[in-house]
Amino acid sequence: MLDLHGYGPRLLEGAGVTLQLAVLSLALAILLGLATASARMSRGWLLQRLATLYTTVIRGVPDLVLMMLLFFGGQMALNVITDALYDRFGVDWYVNLNAFAAGVITIGFIFGAYMGETFRGAFMAVDAGQIEAGKAYGMSPWLVFRRIRFPQMMRHALPGISNNWMVLLKTTALVSVIGLSDMVRVAAEASRATHEPFTFLLPVAAAYLLIASVSEWLFAWLQKRYNIGFGGH
Amino acid sequence: MDVLTTWFHDLMAGNAIFTAQTIGYYWDGLVTTTQLVFLSLVIGLVLAVPLAIGRSSDRRWISLPIYVYTYVFRGTPLLIQLYIIYYGVVFFDGIQETFLWPMLREAFYPALIAFTLNTAAYTTEIFRGAIKATARGEIEAARAYGMSDSLMMRRIILPSAFRRALPAYGNEVIFMLHASAIASVVTLMDLTGAARFIYARYYAPFEAFLFVAAIYLCLTFAILYFFRWLEKRLLAHLRPQS
Amino acid sequence: MKKLLTISILGAALAAGTAQARDYDHVRIGVDVPYEPMEYRGADGELTGFDIELGNALCAEIGVTCEWIEQEWDGIIPGLLARNYDAIMSSMSINDERRQTVLFSDSYITIPGAWFAPEGSELSEINEETLSGKSIGVQRGTTYDSYATDSYGRIATVNRYSTADDMVLDLQAQRLDIVFLEYVVGQATLLQSDEGDYHVVGEMVTEPAEYFGEGFGIAFRQRDEALAKRFNEALATLKADGTYDEIHERYFGEE
User: Which one of A129, A187, A224, C62 is most buried, by most CB atoms within 10 A?
Assistant: First the structure.
């Protein structure tokens, strides 16, 4: 049996951190992605430009650099705000951007840009005739979105979401560099302390493969659900 | 020229962070990043072509091991692969006495190995997809001409697969550039390593990281435009005739 | 203004912020662990070391409660500015570069730096000639990093590590020829280690003053002058009543 030198519980905790981080970032990324896609398809000139700027810049800079910028720099920026509040108004509180929050925000922010592209393509793939049919039935715009555009869009967006999720999952490993104890960091620490890198790094690699395989299966199931009525797939 | 040097001098004098010395670190970092990314991409590409052909093979004893390799390297974070190789090589007893050690001792080569294996895995899958998408008609035509399998691979399937793979491969190049930022965790002074050093010394996260982000952005755009240009040239025959 | 407040509050909700009073009855101190014997975990897992014991004694003297918060070195000053803690007591050398960012207490100890090499190393003294082409290990962002980079960065490779542990591992793996760090830390982690033999190369390093000259101090945010003053007064008291000497003797023996 694998001898983890007592690091077993911490590794499990680390795996929990990795999963929480990945799921929360995904949720944020989907929200940002929907917002970006709507902005890019909106008629507002400024909104369009902003959304384009966001997706271009984010996709042009390495995740790790963005993460460090936000983790180290974001806090300083927040401090300028809270210090000003204190000096001028005596409002005394501060915001503590911990490594976990910085991780979720950065990863969510990065993948929001990718999700934006995914959703934009998917919204455009929805048959305009269906939307018109919905309107003709007297549905409100919200109802059209909920009943027609969203479910139809999801059918086209799922492969892209699944892809982004797989990349996002691996990106979470980077938080170990900014000091968050995810499973990669615990494994690296344990390898150094015990001088047995393979004992810790290989099981963690296997854990990533396991999570990836389970999610692949989950996405296949979802895809099947959203494809109901389109036969053949 | 004089105007330029005075301007440069004034600019440098105005701040404590962007001195000639720190600019030098960024420059060295740019050189390291470029070398690392370029070499791993070239070697990875050379590895990926035969691997992709093997992966498309009907013989399972050839295609299965390659599938396992790409699955593992694409399914796990590059950071773990880098750790395993960087820390792992040291624990082979006596590695320090072999002829390999002068290379493996430097952080550059373990990083190069990890990056190469990683990009080769992704590129293999990209090429496999492109090979699989070869039009049936092309294959049948080649057969009708009496081409052997290897000749057909060389003359028909690979050239058209390369062209089809181009957009996806361009993405992979950008991905690799961005992924290379983790080289700094194993002491390499690449672009990100330079930024981390300058940040740790002057506690100036915005200057250190925004500057380096801008460099990466420029590099990304350069790659993007290069591949667009390449696509335009190589895929000219696929564009609708006007 | 309203907008700014809304944004900040939104940020607070996102980042799970907490309010903190500015007149201290509870002081959080940032520390980079392990750095034996200055700060490390004993066999029982409890935080201990010279800094920790002196810090606790200072807090007791002032009449505040102390909480130690672990932070890796390269983020330790940003962490202070970010109010993740209120002070840093982590073998931090006082120098002008840092003084621009933080406020230092009076120096509470002076410990020299030293070069450590494995047994059998050909290095017997430290100068530009002997170090030429060698790889030097330092902890990123320390005074040792700045000094090694400025003095030997052109002729040797300087490898920077996030933690002292990483650095020692690469020295053992023979990736590094020599490391440069605080003498007492090298003594605890290298000279007294079971894995391999190490020795000090050359002299103890206490010069030049712009890097090492002023000893270690407790760092505060620049606005917290009152807090720094309380620590300085307490330090003077502990030095006068013998508490300081007693702690010093426990870690470093008789002078």
Answer: A187
